[in-house]
């Protein structure tokens, strides 16, 4: 319906998170595209989640026969605290990526060429300033990994009634986004979240490094993977934990087989053997009100034994984050 509507209305701008592009690539059949023309689509803005180059490449190739152009893809970066966009790929500029060494992505490291592809998410919007800083808040040279700070007229003034939380992220009008990245040729590259660091055998890894390996796995729900570290009993160090929502279309694949397939793919692509792979029902992983995965909260609830699948309501399954939001709203109304 999304692509048919773009064609019918001759839409020129339509944004979506990466998992939407991946879902279209996997689910839409040729006959459903009959009569569609996507040539009017000038800006297919892609953001809200890590943007994997493979997702963009597959979408572009899949829908090229119906007039979609690769240069319409526009990777972007933003956050609610900046209301909303910070950077965006300019119109008619094809998306690009760099291969970086995942072993040199600590704050202050100079980016080195390697096997992990990282998508450029564009240039800053008018009036927005962006800096890559070290742990002490000092600007880093171009091409170095660090904390992403932004400033501009759209940056929030405060979190409502939360002065302590506000003080943690705002400094003289600059916002600490909580994300890590680097800049090159005025383009921003996002590496991951500040706290999403997994230490395996003494080496630091970003959660996205493992999650990206499963972006095109047919047994896994697109964009519904959380990677984190955990300490098993009697273990010598942290091990890799993967929380994976199964695809509703993979009913014929048993949990045990899917665990083996996920573990094999992670080993083949990263050289790391997962310590534990957990298969979850669709909708189990925690998400924000805007739909972003809550990594830390999901892992914390799993380790505490309180991460549960969504509840069925009148014959259909209500997504977990919607259900939790509804319960919180009702509690606030009933207990003012």
Report the structural category: alpha+beta
The outline comes out as globular
How is the biggest beta sheet arranged?
A: 5 strands, antiparallel
Work out the helicity level. 10-25%
Order of helices and strands: HHEHEEEEEEEHEEEEEHEEHEHEEH
Q: What oligomeric state is this? A: single chain
Residue windows where pLDDT falls under 50 for at least 5 positions: none
Instruction: Work out the strand percent.
Output: 25-35%
**What value does the Rg take, in angstroms?**
21 Å
What does this structure look like?
Strand 1, helix 3 and strand 2 (73-79) form a beta-alpha-beta unit. The protein is globular. The strands form six sheets. Strands 7, 8, 9, 10 and 11 form a five-stranded antiparallel beta sheet that branches. It is α+β, with helices and mostly antiparallel strands. It has helices at 2-9, 18-27, 53-63, 163-169, 207-211, 255-270, 295-303, 320-334; strands at residues 44-46, 73-79, 84-88, 97-100, 116-119, 123-124, 129-133, 146-151, 170-171, 174-184, 187-193, 197-200, 203-206, 220-230, 239-246, 276-280, 312-313, 316-317.
């Amino acid at each position: 319906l999304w692509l048919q509507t773009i064609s019918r209305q001759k839409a020129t701008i339509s944004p979506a998170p990466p998992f939407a592009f991946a879902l279209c690539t996997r689910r839409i059949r040729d006959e459903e595209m009959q009569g569609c023309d996507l040539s009017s689509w000038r800006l297919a803005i892609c953001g809200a989640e890590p943007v994997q180059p493979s997702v963009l490449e597959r979408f572009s190739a899949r829908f090229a026969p119906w007039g979609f152009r690769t240069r319409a893809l526009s990777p972007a970066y933003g956050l609610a605290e900046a209301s909303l966009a910070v950077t965006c790929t300019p119109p008619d500029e094809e998306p690009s990526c760099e291969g970086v060494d995942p072993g040199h992505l600590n704050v202050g490291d100079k980016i080195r060429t390697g096997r992990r592809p990282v998508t450029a998410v564009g240039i800053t919007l008018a009036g927005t300033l962006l800096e890559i800083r070290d742990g002490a808040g000092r600007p880093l040279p171009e091409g170095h990994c660090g904390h992403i700070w932004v400033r501009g007229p759209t940056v929030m003034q405060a979190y409502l009634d939360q002065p302590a939380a506000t003080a943690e992220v705002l400094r003289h009008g600059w916002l600490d986004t909580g994300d890590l990245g680097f800049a090159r040729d005025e383009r921003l590259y996002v590496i991951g979240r500040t706290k999403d660091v997994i230490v395996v055998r003494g080496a630091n890894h970003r959660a996205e490094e493992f999650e990206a390996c499963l972006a095109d796995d047919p047994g896994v729900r697109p964009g519904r993977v959380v990677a984190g570290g955990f300490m098993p009993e009697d273990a010598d160090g942290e091990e890799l934990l993967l929380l994976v929502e199964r695809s509703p279309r993979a009913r014929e694949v048993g949990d045990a087989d899917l665990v083996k397939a996920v573990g094999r793919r992670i080993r083949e692509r990263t050289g790391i053997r997962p310590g534990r792979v957990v298969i979850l029902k669709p909708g189990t992983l925690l998400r924000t009100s805007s739909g972003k995965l809550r990594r830390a909260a999901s892992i914390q609830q799993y380790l505490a034994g309180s991460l549960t699948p969504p509840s069925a309501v009148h014959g259909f399954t209500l997504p977990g984050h919607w259900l939790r939001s509804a319960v919180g709203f009702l509690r606030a109304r009933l207990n003012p």
